Each structure stands twice: as C-alpha cells, then as structure tokens.
C-alpha cells in the first residue's frame, strides 16, 4: 500500500527542510527535488499499475463508519500524476529563480506543505478530512503568494485569504448539514444515505458546496481573487496555483461531490454548464484587454477552467473525456506560459507587454517554448489544446447543446487573438531588445523545455490505444457515479 | 429553531462586516465572527435535548448524550481558524508597514 506515502513524504520533507538548512538553501533544494521526484515515480506507478481498480487504506485499521479512509482510484491517481509533474518542473524552475526573493529554504518548506495539502485532498475519502487538507494547502498558498514581500503581493494575499475564509465557512456549513442529516462524514457512506433522503437536502448541500468550492475553482462570479493572487505570486507558484491548485481544490472536488456522491443531479449539471460558458467568455474578454502578461495569463485560467466546467456539465462520456483531458493539457501549457512570463520578467525587468520587444535572438528557448504554449492554448493542431477543445466541442454538439458549442468556439478564437497580442508585443515585437537585465538560467530552461515537449506528448493521450489505458479509466470512475460508494463499502 | 436563526444571524453579521467594512482589522474580526457562527452551528447540530456529556460511566449507560463528533470537528476548525486569523493579522501588519494605513480604499495597487 503506497497510499499514505503521498501525504507522508511531502509532509515529512517540509518539516525536515528547516532542520537541515540553516543559512544555505542547497539541502532544501536537494530534499524537495528528491521528494517530488519520488512522488512523481510513485504516482505514475500507482496510475499505471492497475487502471480501473480502487484501493482503500483504512487509517489505524478502523472500518468505515468510524474511521477515516484514504481512497485511490483512477481519477485521483491521474490527478496525483498531474500534481507531481507540475510540482517537479516548478521546483526545477525555482532553483535559481527564487534566490533573489530571500532565504530560500522557507520557500521549499512551504512548497512541500502545498503539495501535501493537494495530495491529501486528492486521496482522502472523508469530507471533513478534505476540508482540513484544503486549508493546509491554502495556508501554504497564501504564504507563497506573499513570498516576494512587495506591497501588491501582500494585498493580493490578503484578498485571497479573506475570499478563502468566506468559502471555507460555506463549506463548513455544508459539512455540518451533511453530518446532521446522514450522521456520517465519509464520502462513501454519505453517498449511500444521501440518495435515500429528501431531494431538498441535496439542493441545500449542493448549493453550499457549489458556492464554497466554486470560489476555489474561480468560476466567473467567484473569480475576483484569482487575477491578483496568480499574477502577484512568484512565477513557479503562479504555475502551481493556475496549473494544479484550482483544479485539485476546485474541479476535482466538485466532480467528486456532484458525480460520485450526489449522482449528478441535473440542476447542478445545468449550473456547471452556465458557469462554464460565462467563465469562458468573460474570462477571455477580460484577458484580451490586459497589458500585464501575468494578469493576462491569470484571466485565461478562468476562461480555460470554464471549458472544463462546461465539459463536466454535459454529463456524457465524451464530455468527461474532454474535461479530464483538458485538465492535464491546461496544467501543462498554462504552467509553461507562467514559466515564460517569469523568464521574461527576469530577463527584461518588466511585466508590461508594451515595454517588451523582439527577444527571439536573445532568448531562443523562452520565445520558442512560449510560441508552442501559445499555439497549444489557442487550440492549433498538432498541440494538445486543439484535441481537448475539439473533444469538448464535439461532445457539446452531440449532447444537443449547440449554444455551448458555439461559446466554446468563440472563446477559442478570442484566446487566439489575445495570444497573438502576447507574441506580437511581448516576444516578437518590432523593436529589438538590446540587452537583458537578468539571465535565464539552466533550471528555468530545463523546466520550459520539458513542458514544451509535454505539450506535444500529451496530444498522444487521445490516440486510440493510449486513450484506453489513460483517459478511459478516469472517465469510467466519474461516469459510474455512485458506484464509487459501493466499491469502497465493498458491496 | 430560535437558536438556529440566531446562529444564522451571527453568520450574516460576519458576512456583512466582510462585505462593507473598509478597515483591515474589522475585516479580520468579521471573518472571525463568521467562523464562530459556523462552529456554533456544528455544535448545535450535535446537541440533543437533555443530553449529558458524552462519556460512558457506570450507572448511566443508557442516558441520552450529546453527539461528541461535531465537538471534535469544531476543535479542529478552531485551530484552522487560528492559523488563518494569524496569517491575516500578519498580512495586515505588513500592509500597514507598506501603505501606512488600514483603509482598504487606499490600498489599491492592483486593479482591473
């Protein structure tokens, strides 16, 4: 059983780092890199070992109505792979990048706590435990957003913290309502007894969770904190937040609760569709007008999360293939875009697109990888974004929702427009840049190259043969709905 | 029922504070009030009328008890809230050092 290691390894590393590193950061770097590499290996092994199987780990051996259990099925294993992958590239990117922000062992310790929280959310089978892990990762994320120590970073972090505490209250009330009506906190037993209760209860609980986790997802009416927090954080942390945090705390939990626990109630699926469509359009429209490259990318995160929510709301197998596929694709290309933005900021000393120029000669790796990422996010073949958006659009048409298909197409065109702007002003402008302020070092280059390769490699996931081994087991877990509870309870 | 209504009112007081106050410290206090309302709600859900403390003793095995689990949950959530409040206070102090004010209408470097 490798399940507890996903939580124990990063947590133990986080506490070990302050002990071994006094002044120098080298032991912290080595420890955290080793820990995330181990996590990546473990999660890939967990995903490929036995697709379609569910593993349950009972903490201290307590059986279900009493104890807290960890559950690993294809969906959580898939998400674990994604988290570890982005975390590893993000750490490689940070090695030199984070030096100028201060004592770096604190950064690595907080980073490992962030990973602990996310892995915990993905693995836990208990709703209050999920709440605790969510708060662990949020506290680490808040501290990391403010890590740079500049005024606007504190401002963004404060805004994020207040929004997060409101949403945490809503989630806690939701948990209280769930407990008072089902006398249980384990997702499996809640799912079993919720189906026999008054439908009004599902409405209450669903509403509270939709609002609470909707804030974490940053779907459109709940998005106000995201552009500030994601654009103020250091670049590797922006990549972690946009790439994986909003998906683990937001989309993953929403899908788990609304599909596996509540059995996909039609009203909430409709809310998913509307939230998704609004986020796609409003996110991208706000993004087009931005001149700060990181704010532009942050608004695009809202829009791309909209695609995932839209696909989740379709409630068809193809739609969920699109959602799951777009999740990994967005994690890869959005992280890459944030790495590029960080490299540009280091090299040029500005985040304003109007002050940048032609850097194709001086920064070949950054400009090439940013081209790849821009093409991927705008949905140009043969990059991964094209295939997942295509799947989502086809699924919307097949589910007789042509309006939403049109929304997805329009959103994609506007995405292309705004990334044309990034390329035109930021990297391939008319005025050539004479000299650079800072240097893009090997760690940043390695992370960017690795993700640029993955932008192409993940487009293979949709091919028949590979798809059966990777995406289909994940979608099967989601589409089986409350079968999840029966599997865990062993019926 | 009155108790639940009062508890909900307390929650709304906190929400109102977060949405309308301009002072950082008042916002932190409001978020605390909201947290207290949630904790109170959890404890209320575990309350049984005429219930005793949930410890098994000789002589009162059959007696009604209040539900101990929400109390354990509340302890955990109080600790989490402590962490969040401490972080918010630390951020407020750093913001004051940077801007020399607690007024959020004057702390507006990020917008758009």
The overall number of domains of chain A is: 1
The proportion of strand residues of chain B reads under 5%
Secondary-structure-based class of chain A equals mainly alpha
Secondary-structure element order of chain B, N to C = HHH
How many separate domains make up the residues of chain B? 1
Annotation field: number of helices of chain B: 3
> Structural class from helices and strands of chain B?
mainly alpha
Low-confidence stretches of chain B: none
Query: For the terminal residues of chain A, how far apart are their CA atoms?
Result: 21 Å
- How much of the residues of chain A is beta strand, in percent? under 5%
What is the strand tally of chain B? 0
The chain-level mean pLDDT of chain A equals 91
Strand order of the largest sheet of chain A: 1-2
Mean pLDDT of chain B: 89
Walk me through this protein's architecture.
The complex is a heterodimer of chains A (491) and B (112). With 491 residues, chain A is an all-alpha fold. Chain A has one domain (3-490). In chain A, 74% of the residues lie in helices and 2% in strands. Chain A has 20 helices and 2 strands. Chain A has a two-stranded antiparallel ribbon. In chain A, helix 11 (266-288) packs antiparallel against helix 12, helix 13 (317-348) crosses helix 19 and helix 14 runs antiparallel to helix 16. By secondary structure, chain B is mainly alpha-helical. Chain B has one domain: Helix Hairpins. Chain B is built from 3 helices and no strands. Chain B has helices at residues 2-20, 24-45, 68-99. The longest helix of chain B has 32 residues, at 68-99. Chain B starts with a helix and ends in a 13-residue tail after the last helix. The model of chain B has no long low-confidence stretch (mean pLDDT 89). The A-B interface holds A 128, 131-132, 135, 139, 142-143, 146, 149, 151-152, 154-159, 161-162, 164-166, 168-169, 172-173, 175-177, 179-180, 185, 227-228, 232, 290, 295 and B 11, 14-15, 18, 24, 27, 31, 34-35, 37-39, 41-42, 45, 69-70, 73, 76-77, 80-81, 83-84, 87-88, 91-92, 94-95, 98-99, 107, 109-110, 112.
């Amino acid at each position: 059983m490798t399940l507890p290691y996903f939580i124990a390894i990063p947590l133990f590393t986080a506490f070990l780092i302050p002990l071994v590193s006094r002044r120098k950061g080298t032991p912290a770097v080595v420890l955290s890199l080793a820990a995330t590499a181990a996590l990546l290996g473990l999660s890939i092994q967990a995903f490929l070992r036995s697709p379609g199987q569910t593993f349950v780990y009972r903490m201290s051996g307590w059986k279900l109505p009493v104890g807290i259990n960890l559950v690993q099925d294809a969906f959580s294993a898939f998400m674990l792979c994604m988290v570890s992958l982005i975390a590893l590239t993000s750490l490689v990117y940070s090695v030199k990048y984070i030096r100028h922000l201060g004592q770096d062992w604190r950064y690595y310790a907080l980073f490992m706590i962030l990973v602990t929280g996310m892995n915990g959310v993905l693995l836990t089978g208990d709703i209050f435990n999920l709440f605790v892990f969510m708060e662990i990762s949020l506290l680490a994320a808040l501290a990391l957003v403010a890590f740079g120590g500049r005024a606007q970073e504190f401002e963004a972090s404060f805004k994020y913290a207040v929004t997060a505490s409101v949403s945490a209250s809503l989630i806690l009330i939701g948990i209280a309502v769930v407990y008072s009506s089902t006398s249980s906190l384990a997702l499996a037993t809640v799912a079993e007894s919720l189906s026999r209760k008054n439908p009004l209860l599902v409405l209450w609980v669903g509403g509270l969770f939709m609002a609470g986790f909707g804030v974490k997802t940053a779907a459109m009416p709940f998005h106000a904190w995201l552009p500030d927090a994601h654009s103020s954080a250091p670049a590797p942390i922006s990549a972690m937040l946009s790439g994986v945090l909003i998906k683990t705390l937001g989309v993953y939990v929403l899908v788990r609760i609304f599909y596996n626990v509540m059995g996909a109630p039609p009203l909430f699926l409709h809310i998913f569709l509307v939230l998704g469509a609004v986020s796609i359009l409003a996110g991208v429209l706000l993004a087009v007008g931005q001149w700060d490259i990181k704010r532009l990318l942050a608004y695009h995160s809202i829009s791309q999360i909209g695609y995932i929510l839209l696909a989740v709301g379709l409630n068809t197998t193809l739609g969920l293939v699109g959602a799951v596929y777009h999740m990994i694709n967005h994690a890869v290309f959005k992280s890459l875009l944030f790495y590029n933005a960080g490299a540009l900021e280091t090299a040029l000393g500005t985040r304003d697109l109007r002050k940048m120029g032609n850097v194709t000669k001086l920064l070949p790796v950054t400009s090439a990888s940013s081209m790849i990422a821009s093409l991927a996010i705008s949905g140009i073949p043969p990059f991964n974004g094209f295939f997942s958006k295509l799947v989502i659009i086809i699924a919307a048409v097949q589910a007789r929702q042509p309006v939403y298909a049109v929304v997805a197409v329009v959103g994609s065109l506007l995405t292309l427009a705004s990334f044309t702007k990034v390329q035109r002003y930021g990297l391939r402008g008319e005025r050539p840049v004479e000299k650079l302020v800072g240097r893009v070092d090997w760690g940043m280059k390695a992370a960017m190259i690795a993700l640029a390769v993955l932008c192409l490699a993940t487009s293979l996931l949709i091919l028949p043969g590979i798809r059966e081994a990777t995406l289909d087991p994940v979608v099967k877990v989601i589409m089986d709905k409350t079968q999840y509870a029966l599997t865990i309870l062993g019926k | 029922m009155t108790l639940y209504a009062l508890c909900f009112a307390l929650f709304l007081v906190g929400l109102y504070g977060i949405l309308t106050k301009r002072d950082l410290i008042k916002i932190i206090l409001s978020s605390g009030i909201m947290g207290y309302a949630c904790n109170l709600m959890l404890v209320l859900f575990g309350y049984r009328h005429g219930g005793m403390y949930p410890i098994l003793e000789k002589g009162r095995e059959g007696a009604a008890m209040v539900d101990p689990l929400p109390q354990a949950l509340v302890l955990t959530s109080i600790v989490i809230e402590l962490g969040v409040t401490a972080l918010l206070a630390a951020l407020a102090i750093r913001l004051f050092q940077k801007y020399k004010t607690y007024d959020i209408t004057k702390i507006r470097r990020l917008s758009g």
